[in-house]
User: Fold these one by one.
Assistant:
Number 1:
Amino acid sequence: MRSFSLIFKQFSRSVLLIAGFAFLGFSAYAQGDAAKGEAIFKAKCTTCHKIDSKLIGPALGPTVTDETDDKWLTHWIENNQALIAAKDPKALKIYNEYNQSGMTVFGELTDGDVANILAYVRTTWKTMQAAPKPGAGTQVAAETGPSDLVIYALIGVIVLAIIIILVLNKVIATLERLLSKNKDFVFEDEAVEVVAVDRLAGIKKLAKNKKFVFFALLCGTLALGSWTWVTMWNTNVHQGYQPVQPIKFPHDLHAGAMKIDCQYCHSGAYKSKNASIPSLNVCMNCHKVVKTESPEIHKIYDALGYDPQTQKYDSTKARPIQWVRIHNLPDFAYFNHSQHVKVAGLKCQTCHGPVQTMKEVYQYSPLTMKWCIQCHKRTDVNTKGNAYYENMIAVHDLIKQGKKVSEAAMGGIECGKCHY
Ligand code: HEC
Ligand code: HEC
Ligand code: HEC
Ligand code: HEC
Ligand code: HEC
Ligand code: HEC
């Protein structure tokens, strides 16, 4: 009897150990290179590709998973034009399929970068297939916390371990009973009867079984812990937020099909903290004559007190349109558009996603502190031809020579340092 229990104890310990290692290995696999790939993918590929659906280029999830020739993929991603010029049959086929739209050449990417991108696309596509998530923008939620994959794997491994242990417990109990009670031969149906009578007693016994109680508690704690963890990560994160706007303003038509520059309507982004929403007068530059019959455009007329018949404005009837704000940082965080758009030279799409393809705008990035910090860690500052950095180098030289430096030399009399 002793030996049975001992063997069982050792066995359940090894099952737990293996489960633990499997979990660790799995989470390392799911996050390792894919995390690096994600950053590159978001910075360079999302303007034209989505993982699960066609954008300007093909849906990368299925294509990159079906195409197993990584060498070819690496060639393609680094320099697709070279492959096309060399008349590579596969390259020509895709190129023609997509009306010769032409993908950007990414000479700056190393083979390692491409491997990371592929790892990210493949794992993300796998997760998407395992747990399809409806709703715009949620495909890229990986940055908001632990990946769902890891949590599902954890739960799966624990459930499996418990099942194995329960089954073994049962087998051992039966064997022990067989050996102790009926030293002689036991008929099969007799054994069944014993089990049937013992059903309620079995539950009681289970409650007394320390191993079982321990695992039930462990399971409960882990489930509750994961739930709290995920909830806390996602508190106040509104990625994918897409409120209903008073006028259904289609960005895909204006910024996409018609190619109106973002600057035409959001000029503030280039010269101030706020990107700003255009006034309806900007819309009237075109909509005085374009689509005058549309009910959506009539909302513009109503808001301005404009009468399309007489073509006159009546300011007494005017009332402002109440756009619902989508992106909103808390007041204690300072974010300046011109610093990122003008000075750093970032594209709007880096942070706001492919707005030119959105029927209605939604919040593309999580806007968490982690998101800001990660980009600040990964993005090199362009110091060339920037008076601010040239001044900094000059001040640095003065300090090195042991000379005195006034605050004014460090930019302390620039208006923006004290006013915003
Ligand atoms: C300017 C838009 C654009 C950007 C940016 C872009 N692609 Fe593409 N990509 C395309 C188009 C369009 C095609 C289809 C082939 C063609 O027309 O050249 C394509 C095709 C591909 C294919 C071939 C798919 C297949 O069917 O085998 C891969 C892989 C790919 N892109 C990966 C990437 C990756 C990775 C990045 C980011 C580093 C990226 N692309 C960035 C437009 C783009
Ligand atoms: C013809 C004018 C126009 C153009 C061009 C335009 N937008 Fe907009 N944009 C608007 C209006 C109006 C709103 C407010 C309504 C809405 O949210 O859909 C808006 C809202 C937004 C928002 C959401 C603001 C919020 O509430 O947080 C973002 C982000 C945005 N635009 C980015 C862009 C980008 C990037 C481009 C260029 C690719 C662009 N817009 C081009 C008019 C324009
Ligand atoms: C540079 C010219 C231009 C500007 C500026 C412009 N639009 Fe448009 N807009 C158009 C054109 C052209 C169409 C119609 C495309 C078509 O034929 O479907 C359109 C279509 C629309 C539609 C869809 C109407 C429907 O019933 O399909 C809405 C809504 C709209 N615009 C709202 C606005 C708003 C709001 C603004 C100001 C923030 C604005 N537009 C600024 C040119 C413009
Ligand atoms: C580095 C990331 C980043 C880039 C690049 C960026 N934005 Fe933003 N954008 C934000 C953040 C963060 C907010 C929220 C700001 C807040 O709540 O104070 C925002 C808010 C907005 C809003 C809402 C209204 C406002 O004025 O805050 C609009 C419109 C907008 N952005 C348009 C643009 C356009 C157009 C561009 C390109 C010219 C652009 N953004 C480039 C991060 C970015
Ligand atoms: C896509 C990349 C990216 C994201 C996302 C981003 N930033 Fe930046 N940020 C930059 C770069 C690049 C600079 C350097 C600009 C320069 O050359 O001065 C910068 C500079 C700044 C500065 C000036 C720092 C200094 O030393 O003066 C502040 C403040 C700032 N960012 C705040 C934010 C906040 C807040 C967020 C998140 C809401 C954010 N940034 C998100 C790329 C980013
Ligand atoms: C070292 C910080 C600092 C710098 C640099 C600075 N200011 Fe000021 N400024 C202030 C303070 C503080 C006040 C408020 C003084 C008061 O209320 O008496 C102020 C007030 C003002 C006012 C008056 C506002 C009002 O409502 O009365 C204006 C206008 C102004 N500043 C413009 C500028 C301009 C333009 C520049 C750049 C050339 C600049 N400031 C640079 C700190 C600064």
Number 2:
Amino acid sequence: MPEGHTIHRHARDQRRLMQGKALAVSSPQGRFERADTLDGRRLLDVEAWGKHLVYVFEGPEPRRVHVHLGLFGKFRRHKVPAPPPRTTCRMRLVSETHAIDLVGPTACELMDEAALARLLARLGPDPLRDDADRAAALARLKRTRASIGAALLDQSVLAGVGNVYRAEALYACGIHPDVGAASVPGAVLERLWDTLVAMLRRGVREGRIVTAVEFAKGEKRRRVPRREAFVVYGRRACRRCESPVRRWLVRQRWAYACETCQPPPSTSS
Ligand SMILES: [Zn+2]
């Protein structure tokens, strides 16, 4: 599933192409109901909250489109004239210059202001948003009874963090994924939040996740092969100390840790 940096990058790219323009809006597949009610309206903004995208159109409610890519959703971009849409295209947006096709999302639906408020109430702070409230995020981590590894993937605690950032940010802060979130000292949680902000922002800038930055600097980082991009994620040995990396399921996703660099709870408490 795409992590938050991918969604923010889609929002940024689509704003650049289509913000302020009147768009032709359609659902070639037909499963985005009432898509035609937005047809011809001006797109005011594309916003990202965690893994959710929200398009805001000018005019009467409902004037928002909520998109969640899920595991299989994808965008395809074309220059106008665009090829005919595939029959699986859930939503097509067309400006005078570009077309964007959305295929295979988990959600693509009209949304009014009240529904947006309900969605946002379910989401924790998103480290990539300028208006994110760090104190509120840390309070949510302190309140949960889950392990820190489980809490980071809970979108109602923090929005936008996925499996790779979980593994790499916990590693960078020396925190074992099984440590109870509430037992992590406040100063360490602050550092974890700041680490996530920096890692996610770099991901938006570079369009991919490279967290082993001390091993791959500057321009070279863009070409670093995937297996060398991480310190523990997907690895057999820790990039720094070469101890074996342990892999186990936390919240149904593989967690990775170097138990030399990230002491397990029994030895660290
Ligand atoms: Zn290590």
